Amino acid sequence: MTKPCIICVAITGSLPTKANNPAVPITVSEQVESTHEAFEAGATIVHAHVRNDDETPSSDPEKFAALKDGIEKHCPGMIIQFSTGGRSGAGQTRGGMLLLRPDMASLSVGSNNFPTRVYENPPALVDWLASEMLLHEIKPEIEAFDLSHILKAKDMVDKGQLAGTPYIQFVMGVKNAMPVDRDVFDYYIHTVRRLFGEETPWCAAGIGANQLRLNEWAIAAGGHARTGLEDNVRLDRDRLAPSNAALVRRVVDICDSNNRPVARWQEARRILGLRLPEQTRKGQAA
Asked: How far apart are CA 166 and CA 192, in angstroms?
């Protein structure tokens, strides 16, 4: 298989702290440095959260702006994807950073159980986040924690709430949500292809020890892969991951073993139908 594989690195998230792994980047400068290392290792999408100084999650648009500026400066061409996840804020604060016009943003289109609570994504909030992404020309990544979320994405496309073909990410291994199940994984792929077309790009993310397994499944099946310290802080049971870049390099090795080239940022943008970075467009117009 020669289809290029897009690697997304989820650098920080809302939960892992330096007590879990000292390599987790917390400050904006740490996140920019960690992203740069991951970019050089082969990642072309960065999934970004921001944190307060005490390591708690934040949805502060100023922090997102500083992070975006740093990544654009040090990782030219990399696809920047902001999280609108529910751990970082409540209600419309979850989308307060969308006016910054990142390339992409995560969009959870339905609720589900998490380890200790309900991950709430009320229909009105989902509709508002989708409308903000349309307004600011941001491509949503649909985070599918359940089969119904893929079907909901199709409904939103049909209603014009989502532009173009959505990029759907299967999230498996969250306690109390969808477990890691190969039959379910294969049916997810079947459902995406049935609803959106055979060539629709999709991605998979595994949580904790399941990260490696989902990387292997997705790459072998022709999908794209997510890795990073947000989802998993370890290389294996005995070793902490020394960096986000180390987890990216592991995905690159899986791509090599499956004869799949790692997508460069230009290829990743083409596959996902994303605009060129502003600095590139200015250079072409000059």
From this structure: 10
- Which pTM was predicted? 0.95
Altogether, the residues listed in the chain come to a count of 286
**pLDDT tens sequence across 113-141:** 999 899 999 999 999 999 999 999 999 99
- As a three-state string, the secondary structure of the chain is CCCCECEEEECCCCCCCCCCCCCCCCCHHHHHHHHHHHHHHCCCEEEECEECCCCCEECCHHHHHHHHHHHHHHCCCCEEEECCCCCCCCHHHHHCCHHHCCCEEEECCCCEECCCCEECCCHHHHHHHHHHHHHCCCEEEEEECCHHHHHHHHHHHHCCCCCCCCEEEEEECCCCCCCCCHHHHHHHHHHHHHHHCCCCCEEEEECCCHHHHHHHHHHHCCCEEEECCCCCCEEECCEECCCHHHHHHHHHHHHHHCCCCECCHHHHHHHHCCCCCHHHHHHHHC
Rounded to whole angstroms, what are the CA distances from 96 to 40, 88, 184, 201, 231? Answer: 30, 11, 34, 28, 24
The predicted pLDDT at position 258 comes to 97
Rounded CA-CA distance 123/197 in Å is: 26
- How far does Cα 184 stand from its chain's mean position? 20
Using CA atoms, how far apart are residues 194 and 188, in angstroms rounded to an integer?
Answer: 10
- Asked if residue 199 lies in contact with residue 206, where contact means CB atoms within 8 angstroms, the answer is no
Angle value at C-alpha 222, between 220 and 223, nearest 5 degrees: 105
Cα 275 to the center of its chain, rounded Å = 18
